[in-house]
Structures are given as structure tokens and as C-alpha cells.
From TrEMBL:
The gene is manA. Gene3D superfamilies: Jelly Rolls. This is Mannose-6-phosphate isomerase. It comes from Tetragenococcus koreensis. Belongs to the mannose-6-phosphate isomerase type 1 family. It catalyses: D-mannose 6-phosphate = D-fructose 6-phosphate.
Length: 318
């Protein structure tokens, strides 16, 4: 079986820009592209397979019709979604529901996510968490627009990593490019949007009631237990191992040999270039290349000078 290489799915956003072209050399349909849905089976942007016997097939179709590729996992939907985001302007401050709330109110999975900072301009910041001690205080601070007092701001730089579980108030700041690994969900509740207007002059919708409902109060401290395993000059950095997904950074400096740890593995090249060797075949890797290693690929090797962010289904999904 071959790796499954993905065609990018681009999403135009009010805060998007052109960096997915200038950095990754993607051919963009407009100058306001905020997201590349790099690996997705979500109905709002489904990936197409670029190669092999399934070339031209959609990922959601493969999930339904060829479960053997994914280790015969249970579930109606492919559970993960990988994006590259280009924040040419500040994103809205937002929060996502957990599975229980989202399934009841939106009919889809909740949204726990995590961010790898591909690049960030000097002084770039994210909003990550809040200061309210009770749900009543949270609602009051939102009603009174006490944004500077409510939101926690964090400086970021290239190579930083953040875990953003459902219930976390967050916002990506201007000048940041990230690789986001998340549950396959498109449910977002906006808390604040800088009083911006859309291209028709309308203030964008906020979701205050839902935001207060789903926000974790007080804010949780999401401590990471990051570890690194060296292999010559190359290494594997383990960022997260959760019920939703496990996330790794593959640092390739020469060669890196890996073996299957889960029913399938997702990967995206965020920097550099090289090649993937799997099942006796070689595949070129460039910045922005995204692929899935299906269940029957037991071992693979990466060669070159590259950084990849990889993920796999978490323990509850295996």
C-alpha cells in the first residue's frame, strides 16, 4: 500500500493573507486565504487523494468504504483534521464546545485542538485563557467589554506548541502561521471580534450565550509533558498523548526511521525538504506536503533536512 498524499483545500477568511503562497508556494485562489485544510474529511472541506489506486477519491469516501486502510476503526466520521493557518490579521477570540455539547447543539464532534507555531513575527501574541474565577464573572466581564482584563495574552515564537482543549478561550494574533491538529469539527463560538465588519458592512456574529456555557471556568492550566527521542542528528519530539490525538514533531537531519504506533498516521511538512521511503518506494517531500500512512505500512524512513508535524488517533480512538 502507498502513502495517501492530499490535495490542499483552501478557505478564504476575513483575516487571511497570501503567506500560504509566499511560504509554501501554494497556488491560491485569492489574496485572503486563511486556512489550508491539509488533511480533512469534514464536509466543509474534504481532502482529495493525489496518488495511487485511490487517486481522485475523497477522504470521507475512503473512510466509509475502505476501513482496512485505517485499521478498521469505529466511528461514522474520520476523527482528525489538520490545518495550516495564516493569520494576516487577528482572528476572533473564540471557544469550542466539547463532544457532549457539540453533538447535542450542533450535531457534530466537539473541538479540542493544538497548535505548532510554524512562524511568528517579532512580538506576535496569542490569546490563551482568561482571568474569570466564576461563570457569573465571565459573563459580566464579557457584557462590560473588559477585554484587556479578561483575556490572557502570550508571546509566541517559531517552534512553540500549545494545547487548546475544548472550553479554552483563545485567539491567534496577527503575523502568526500555525499547524493545527484538531478533532474533525467546524463549530466555533465567537466571544469577541474586534468590532470588525464583513465585506457587506455587517458586524460579524458573536455567540455569547454559547461561549459562556462551554468555557472552562476557572481556566485550566494545560501543562505539557514534552519529551524528545534522539536518532543520530534527527529526533522525535512528543508533544501530546491524549484521548483525541497524539502529536509529534519529526526533526529530520539526514535520516529518521520510524515504525507504526497507531492504526494510521498523519503528517505535514512544515519546513525543509526531503523524501519519504515506504514499502520500497520513494516520494518527494516539500513544504506543505501532507499525507496519511495507512494501516499496512509498518515502517518508513524520512531523509533530508525537514520538520514534519505528525499525529495519530488517541487512545480512545484506537
Amino acid at each position: 500500500m502507498q502513502p495517501l498524499f492530499m490535495e490542499p483545500v483552501f478557505q478564504e477568511k476575513i483575516w487571511g493573507g497570501n503567506s500560504l503562497h509566499t511560504v509554501f508556494d501554494f497556488d491560491l485562489p485569492s489574496e485572503k486565504i486563511g486556512e489550508d485544510w491539509a488533511i480533512s474529511a469534514h464536509p466543509h472541506g474534504v481532502s482529495t487523494i493525489q496518488n495511487g489506486p485511490f487517486k481522485g477519491k475523497k477522504l470521507d469516501q475512503l473512510w466509509q468504504e475502505h476501513q482496512e486502510l485505517f485499521g478498521n476503526q469505529q466511528g461514522d466520521v474520520f476523527p482528525l483534521l489538520v490545518k495550516i493557518l495564516d493569520a494576516a490579521d487577528d482572528l476572533s477570540v473564540q471557544v469550542h464546545p466539547d463532544d457532549s455539547y457539540a453533538l447535542k447543539h450542533e450535531g457534530e464532534l466537539g473541538k479540542t485542538e493544538c497548535w505548532y507555531i510554524i512562524d511568528a513575527k517579532p512580538g506576535a501574541q496569542i490569546i490563551y485563557g482568561h482571568t474569570a474565577k466564576t461563570r457569573e464573572e465571565l459573563a459580566q466581564m464579557i457584557q462590560e467589554a473588559r477585554w484587556d482584563e479578561l483575556f490572557n495574552k502570550v508571546n509566541v515564537k517559531k517552534g512553540d506548541f500549545f494545547y487548546v482543549p475544548s472550553g479554552t478561550i483563545h485567539g491567534i494574533g496577527e503575523g502568526i502561521m500555525i499547524l493545527e491538529t484538531q478533532q474533525s469539527s467546524d463549530t466555533t463560538y465567537r466571544v469577541y471580534d474586534y468590532d470588525r465588519k464583513d465585506d457587506r458592512g455587517n458586524t460579524r456574529e458573536l455567540h455569547i450565550e454559547q461561549s459562556v456555557d462551554v468555557t472552562s471556568v476557572p481556566a485550566r492550566a494545560n501543562t505539557l509533558n514534552i519529551s524528545e527521542t534522539k536518532q543520530g542528528k534527527s529526533s522525535v519530539i512528543t508533544y501530546l498523548q491524549t484521548e483525541f490525538f497524539n502529536v509529534y514533531e519529526w526533526q529530520v537531519h539526514g535520516a529518521l526511521k520510524l515504525k507504526k504506533q497507531a492504526p494510521y498516521t498523519l503528517a505535514t511538512v512544515t519546513d525543509g525538504y526531503g523524501k519519504l521511503i515506504a514499502a520500497g518506494e520513494e516520494y518527494e517531500l516539500t513544504m506543505g506536503t501532507s499525507f496519511i500512512l495507512p494501516n499496512d505500512i509498518e515502517r518508513w524512513e524520512l531523509q533530508g533536512e525537514a520538520t514534519l508535524i505528525a499525529s495519530e488517533p488517541g487512545k480512545s480512538l484506537k
